[in-house]
Each structure stands twice: as structure tokens, then as C-alpha cells.
Amino acid sequence: MAEIKFKILAKHPDQHSVTVRYYTKKLTEKKLGVEFDPEGNPTRCQTDYNVNIWKVDATPEEIIEIVNAAAPVDWLTLQEKVKDPKVDTSMSAVDDLIGKVFVYKKPTPPQTITITDSTSNTDIKLPEILDEKQIEDFINNMPTQQ
What we know:
Strand order of the largest sheet: 1-2-5
Number of domains: 2
Radius of gyration: 24 Å
Number of strands: 7
Strand content: 25-35%
Order of helices and strands: EEHEEEHHEEH
Mean pLDDT: 88
């Protein structure tokens, strides 16, 4: 992923938020633009986001941190791949799915976590949520390095 840049375009005190524009070297503001002024500069981009500043007395550094954390990293990464002619983003797997009706099924989270013990190369299965005693027992029963 290329370096992501951003700039704060406006503040909205009534919502305690800012409008932020994110872009990269490949996905420039002009390429992301959806509305332009008479000189061809973007006045609105696909990556103009409204970011709430949840802390009412945030410092400039905290605001930058909040805005940084809100960056659409996955979306920008995907779009760079879509624009790369070497990457197949034809989505042919969707062809047979178009028009079909599916029923939503709530995803079931895994009930266990598997950890591989590197000393014996064996898998250790743990409950997904451990209480303090289980954590303590796990730590106490870990093999020691020799």
C-alpha cells in the first residue's frame, strides 16, 4: 500500500466533526474527484469523510491521531489493486451469483483458538474467551525453553 496522505478540509462544530480528504500518490485528489471547480481542481472526492472528534477538548495532536485512525486503508488498497492492470479484479466468481436470492445466516464465531507450540510443533486448542484461572493455568503449563 502506498503512503496515505490526508488533509482536513473543514470543521463542523455543530456535529463536533471535521471533513477529511484521504489520497495516495497513485490515487490522487484529481483521480478521486467527483466534483470540480472551473479550474479542474476537485471540490469533492470519493474519500472526503466526516470524522467525529469524540473527545470535546482534543488537542491538535489528538485530532490528527483520530483522523489518522479513520483512514480508509482497506478501500484505498483495494482501489489501487483495481487500477493495476496486472491484478485480476474481474470478479468472475460473482457471475453465477447475480440475481440469486440468499438467506442471511448469522456468522458463528470460532469457539476455540488454536495456538501452535513451536517447541513440539503441536496445536493447543483454547476456549476463545479465557477467564483468569484458565490464563494462569495455560501460562503455568507452557513448556520451558532449554
